[in-house]
Amino acid sequence: MVYQLIGKPNICMKSFIETIKSIEVESPADKIIGQLKQLITSGQLQPGDRLPAERVLAEKFGVGRSYVREAILKLEFYGLLKTNPQSGTYVSGLSIKVMDSIITDVIKFNKDDFNALLEARYYLELDAVKLAAERRTEQDLENLREALLDYENKINNGQDAVEEDMLFHIKIAKASKNSVIESMILILIPDLIKNIVENKICGENRGKLAIPEHRSILKAIEERDIDAAENALAAHLNDMFQISQAGYNAQKIINSAPN
Amino acid sequence: MVYQLIGKPNICMKSFIETIKSIEVESPADKIIGQLKQLITSGQLQPGDRLPAERVLAEKFGVGRSYVREAILKLEFYGLLKTNPQSGTYVSGLSIKVMDSIITDVIKFNKDDFNALLEARYYLELDAVKLAAERRTEQDLENLREALLDYENKINNGQDAVEEDMLFHIKIAKASKNSVIESMILILIPDLIKNIVENKICGENRGKLAIPEHRSILKAIEERDIDAAENALAAHLNDMFQISQAGYNAQKIINSAPN
DNA sequence: TAATTAGATTTGGTTTACCAATTAATTGGT
DNA sequence: ACCAATTAATTGGTAAACCAAATCTAATTA
């Protein structure tokens, strides 16, 4: 089993300009989330309690109700709050410690650490492809073959095919028949594409090399060969990962050059 | 390597009442997302284009601007739109096919398929623990030991310790040093806790049995033994999963009983 | 006294109005 | 005809206003 990604050092790859940009003030909603966090961790808001009315919170925090609602919406997505229409918003029954851990992450969840992104994608897809090899239907195979053809056509015409590549991987995620894993992969893909395109990670030869790799992944899924599918995908992603690292190092040098 | 989860059939575990509830009309924001999807897939909105102004969209869809904003916010999280203040909201450069695939998922992303949830958690944590075994710092070990102690104390007092259990797993996620994977695990945890508590998945003996399992996970992480960490965690989660399946089957029988 | 119910109040849901920044258009000068 | 500067219109950001459902209160009745 191949897990070469383990142990790779996290390289700080932010350029100077990006670093500047990332100092942006946190959004008003995130500020409110921070305030709510303090209310909870300080014990003023116990698990199970009802939150003060949105209007009250808005006034208390000196901000419009829109932001309070946005913050509540976000915390609701994480399962930390539950709002009942015309009744009130309630703190989940989770303990303070758990909430504290999670809220901290709600605020700082972003996808601009490219290495973390690549790594997460790597593992998630490996998981997905194993499930796909086990559960794929005939329809899934159809979808995969079509996506593979689209990719080959683009490549053979000498065009960029980053998105067709991703589409192939999306079909794998769908074939996993696990909606949660699929959703998580789907969340990452736009950012992956963005970074790959921006940093011109894929050379022309890379595109052609990927074709047989895709084919062997598909073949393994067709044959329900879990191990083969895992290995084929790992090899495929490892190639990309190494190339992207090289691209980033080059980028780093460019960015750190005096202007 | 243990991957017993593969191939387990997806059991429909929704109770009658929950099924009823899930027929709820999709939120106004999701409806708008659907409309936007159609605008994009029909070609009226090309990748890179600027969206009509929020006011225009609101009027066109016959709804308040808040909902349009909520929809845009959601699509922005998925990287499908980018809004520039005082300028406009722009469609990402992704191809129509990719956007179509993703938007479909944006609407139906929910975490109420408990089996998918458990399975995703299983794989994500397995990934996390491998990374944690490789990258953990002394501080991480401290955190893990503390979490483990909290758990043991609760259990030895005969109390419920579902959250302390989760806290231990949260610390593992943090030790992975991958913010994306950590965030994803954190998103799942409240729903996991909710389901576990609601379905009384953990009996008293289960709590005690988990103590040595936790210890061996910690030991493997301390020793940077990746394989051991993976195996220990897999065993731990497999135990829980089987118990939870049993719990669910029991639940199913209860729910399908005539009332 | 206890249960009930009509009304007032508070809630989140939804829409609208206002603001500052940006962009487009127009004007005036060259 | 072209360019610069000023103005007008449009944008998303923000706050406030309105609505209907849910809740609480208290008077009323059995």
Describe the structure in your own words.
The structure is a homodimer of 259-residue chains. Chain A has 259 residues and is mainly alpha-helical. Chain A folds into two domains: 28-108, Winged helix-like DNA-binding domain superfamily/Winged helix DNA-binding domain (Arc Repressor Mutant, subunit A), CATH 1.10.10.10; 112-256, Four Helix Bundle (Hemerythrin (Met), subunit A), CATH 1.20.120.530. Helix content of chain A is 69%, strand content 3%. Chain A has helices spanning 16-21, 28-41, 54-60, 65-77, 96-108, 114-135, 138-156, 162-175, 179-198, 204-222, 226-256, and strands spanning 81-84, 88-91. In chain A, strands 1-2 form a two-stranded antiparallel ribbon. In chain A, a hairpin with a 3-residue loop joins strand 1 and strand 2 (88-91). The longest helix of chain A has 31 residues, at 226-256. Chain A is elongated, with a radius of gyration of 22 Å. Chain A starts with 15 loop residues before the first helix and ends with a helix. Mean pLDDT of chain A is 85; it is low at 1-23 and 250-259. Chains A and B meet through helix 4, helix 5, helix 6, helix 8 and helix 9 of A and helix 4, helix 5, helix 6, helix 8 and helix 9 of B. The structure holds a DNA duplex (30 and 30 nucleotides). Chains A, B: InterPro entries: GntR_C (IPR011711), TF_FadR/GntR_C (IPR008920), Tscrpt_reg_HTH_GntR (IPR000524), WH-like_DNA-bd_sf (IPR036388), WH_DNA-bd_sf (IPR036390). Chains A, B: Residues 134-161 form a coiled coil. Chains A, B: This is GntR family transcriptional repressor for pyruvate dehydrogenase complex.
